[in-house]
């Protein structure tokens, strides 16, 4: 049993609170990504799980064991460090074999295990090299090999792909997905790259300000963001946010009415200030009827054009249109939003989603405690 | 112009080398000259006859060998003490956070800034009250106190250059803290340890003032003070013996340097620098 639980975990460095209150339950065999902007506490979370950092309060469990006071080597975990942390004076083979050596596995048995891990990662020709003599991608694979050579309960990976070039990164991404499928082990993967999180993870914990903002499948994170932070963090460009009010079941901004799908909200839709969220691809740019806006910028990436538009209240939003579409900067246009793709959030600082379902709602209610 | 440049550069370099090496050369030459040739004017550059009589006299008729042995014990013990204490101290300063850590590091360095003359009287009193005055061990302690601050800072900066994650990785891989130190930190720190050891050994080997004040019995006198008091009196300086003694005093340093030099250049691969 190798599920992982953080219960009410708080972590402060002196005065500075890095993690306010962390609650996560990761199931056995799951591939979970911790995603968030720099400094949000992702590494700290992972390092606490590894035993390299101690929670100020709260409980961390691996399987049925509370591991708070357990030394890193006794937790039966393997970790890939962001910096790889390869032992410079040891050869590739010695690096990969080190965890086995420390567990008293000797001779043939160790050599065979190292050989197997090396073959899996196509490192078998490099076993006698020193880490300095390897390319970044090779070093990264050695770091992975050192983790894979054992059969730990949980794999911890801290931005393992961040130092690689784009091509190697997408290759390693596929490799890791394949590896996880084959091993079926619990993996906790830290990244600030949403593409990595969206493509690899079975569930993503979006972190910000020392808290988990949403912990859900990539699909739910994208299509039903739990609050304004998640909405504004996921997607390139992210979801647009327009301030306005609800009056009699309609969204009004700058005196213009935007139709919404009322059935999705039941009684959550009360009159008052709200924030409307809409993804760039759910915006249609036309003439005549709709929200008036001015074209400010049109960026053609080759297969699509990202248009930056300015609303009368100076809010800037972006829309995604086909590449062939010509839009002149400075021209006035009218926008319509796909009613099924509209999200409404509270106008407060946390900006919770209005129609949260029960699961996400529990996260939010815990946050507001 | 193109061909002139290297010639000029070489000339300048060799002039400098000769200037620096001249006293050393003169020392060796003098130690090999017979007594009769010593004060001849003009001086002879290449001795007319080479003699080892001064070396022989030094070894057979004076307590030179005893002084030498004392110096070896003194410098080696000091080096061992300083390296062990310095490494542990630097590890603690770099890896752990505790109250007063920085203050302590600064205070330690502060003692290094004071001239030894200021420290020597209190040090003498302390060593005397420990019953260690006039013993080699007392002198070893004294040398340790003045070499340690700098060694600590030297090792600290080396230690800071070792990524913390290297040690963390070893811990996750199942090593104990001691194991991680032995397997990962120590090999990385080796260049730093060698530099520190070299520095400490030379300092202790050449130290004069503490030896002069803290030790006065023949049996524990090291080379520096021993040779001085033996060969230099108010009326007479035994130049040829002094030069022979100086040559032999320099030998260990040259040997240690030569040995560690080859290690520093070839052995660094084992220390983790690109190999
Ligand atoms: N040892 C420490 N002492 C003091 N503050 C720390 C320490 N370690 C981390 N922090 C702080 O805790 C916060 C979270 O750090 P953490 O390394 O977990 O961020 P992260 O989410 O991994 O960011 P990144 O994406 O940049 O790696 C940061 O604001 C950081 O400055
Ligand atoms: Mg990090």
UniProtKB/TrEMBL annotation, chain A:
Cited InterPro entries: AAA+_ATPase (IPR003593), ABC_transporter-like_ATP-bd (IPR003439), ABC_transporter-like_CS (IPR017871), ABC_transpr_MalK-like (IPR015855), ABC_transpr_MalK/UgpC-like (IPR047641), Mo/tungstate-bd_C_term_dom (IPR008995), NA-bd_OB-fold (IPR012340), P-loop_NTPase (IPR027417)
One GO term of the biological process aspect: carbohydrate transport
Residue stretches making up the ABC transporter domain: 4-234
One annotated Gene Ontology cellular component of this protein: ATP-binding cassette (ABC) transporter complex, substrate-binding subunit-containing
GO molecular function, one term: ATP hydrolysis activity
Alphabetical keyword list: ATP-binding, Nucleotide-binding, Transport
Sequence similarity: Belongs to the ABC transporter superfamily.
Protein name per UniProt: ABC transporter ATP-binding protein
Species annotation: Histidinibacterium aquaticum
TrEMBL record, chain B:
Main location: membrane
A biological process term (GO) from this entry: transmembrane transport
Membrane topology type: Multi-pass membrane protein
GO cellular component: plasma membrane
Transmembrane portions of the chain: 7-29, 72-94, 106-130, 136-155, 184-203, 209-232, 239-260
Subcellular localization(s) per the UniProt record: Cell membrane
Entry keywords, A to Z: Cell membrane, Membrane, Transmembrane, Transmembrane helix, Transport
Domain ABC transmembrane type-1 per the UniProt entry, residue ranges: 68-260
Signal peptide: none
Family per similarity comment: Belongs to the binding-protein-dependent transport system permease family.
Protein's recorded name: Carbohydrate ABC transporter permease
């Amino acid at each position: 049993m190798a599920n992982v639980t953080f219960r009410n975990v708080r972590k402060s460095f002196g005065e500075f609170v890095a993690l306010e209150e962390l609650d996560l339950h990761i199931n056995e065999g799951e591939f979970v990504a911790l995603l968030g902007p720099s400094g949000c506490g992702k590494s700290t979370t992972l390092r606490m799980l590894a035993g390299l950092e101690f929670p100020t309060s709260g409980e961390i469990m691996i399987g049925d064991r509370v591991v708070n006071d357990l030394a890193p080597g006794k937790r039966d975990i393997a970790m890939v460090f962001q910096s790889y942390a390869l032992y410079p004076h040891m050869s590739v083979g010695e690096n990969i074999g080190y965890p086995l050596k420390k567990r008293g596995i000797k001779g043939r048995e160790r050599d065979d295990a190292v050989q197997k891990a090396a073959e899996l990662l196509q490192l078998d020709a490099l076993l006698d090299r020193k880490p300095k003599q390897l390319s970044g991608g090779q070093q990264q694979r050695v770091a992975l090999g050192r983790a894979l050579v054992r059969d730990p309960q949980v794999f911890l990976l801290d931005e393992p792909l961040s130092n690689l070039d784009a091509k190697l990164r997408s290759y390693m991404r596929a490799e890791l997905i394949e590896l996880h499928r084959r091993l079926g082990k619990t993996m906790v993967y830290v990244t600030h790259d949403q593409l990595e999180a969206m493509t690899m993870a079975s569930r993503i914990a979006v972190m910000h300000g020392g808290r988990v903002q949403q912990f859900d499948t990539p699909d739910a994170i994208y299509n039903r963001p739990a609050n304004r932070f998640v909405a504004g963090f996921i997607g390139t460009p992210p979801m647009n946010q327009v301030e306005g009010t609800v009056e009699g079941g309609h969204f009004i901004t700058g005196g213009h009415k935007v139709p919404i799908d009322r059935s999705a909200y039941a009684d959550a839709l009360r009159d008052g200030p709200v924030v409307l969220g809409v993804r760039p691809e759910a915006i249609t740019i036309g003439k005549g009827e709709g929200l008036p806006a001015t074209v400010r910028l049109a960026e053609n990436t080759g297969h699509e054009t990202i248009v930056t538009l300015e609303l009368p209240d100076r809010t800037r939003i972006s829309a995604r249109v086909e590449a062939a579409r010509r839009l002149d900067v400075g021209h006035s246009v009218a926008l319509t939003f796909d009613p099924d793709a509209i999200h409404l959030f509270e106008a407060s600082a946390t900006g919770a989603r209005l129609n949260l379902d029960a699961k996400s709602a529990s996260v939010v209610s815990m946050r507001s405690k | 112009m193109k061909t002139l440049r290297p010639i000029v550069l070489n000339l300048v370099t060799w002039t400098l080398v000769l200037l620096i090496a001249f006293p050393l050369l003169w020392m060796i030459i003098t130690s090999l000259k017979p007594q009769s040739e010593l004060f001849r004017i003009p001086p002879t550059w290449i001795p007319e006859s080479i003699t080892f009589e001064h070396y022989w006299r030094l070894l057979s008729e004076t307590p030179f060998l005893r002084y030498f042995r004392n110096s070896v014990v003194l410098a080696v013990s000091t080096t061992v003490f300083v390296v062990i204490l310095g490494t542990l101290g630097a590890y603690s300063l770099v890896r752990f956070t505790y109250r007063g850590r920085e203050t302590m590091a600064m205070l330690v360095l502060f003692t290094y800034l004071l001239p030894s003359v200021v420290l020597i009287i209190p040090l003498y009193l302390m060593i005397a009250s420990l019953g260690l005055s006039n013993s080699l061990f007392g002198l070893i302690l004294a040398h340790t106190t003045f070499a340690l601050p700098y060694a600590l800072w030297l090792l600290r900066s080396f230690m800071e250059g070792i990524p913390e994650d290297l040690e963390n990785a070893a811990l996750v891989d199942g090593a104990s803290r001691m194991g991680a130190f032995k397997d990962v930190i120590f090999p990385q720190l080796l260049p730093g340890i060698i530099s520190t050891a070299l520095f400490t050994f030379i300092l202790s080997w050449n130290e004069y003032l503490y030896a002069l004040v803290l030790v006065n019995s023949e049996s524990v006198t090291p080379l520096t003070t021993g040779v001085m008091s033996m060969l230099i009196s108010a009326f007479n300086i035994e130049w040829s013996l002094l030069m022979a003694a100086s040559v032999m005093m320099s030998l260990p340093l040259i040997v240690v340097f030569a040995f560690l030099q080859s290690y520093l250049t070839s052995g660094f691969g084992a220390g983790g620098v690109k190999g």
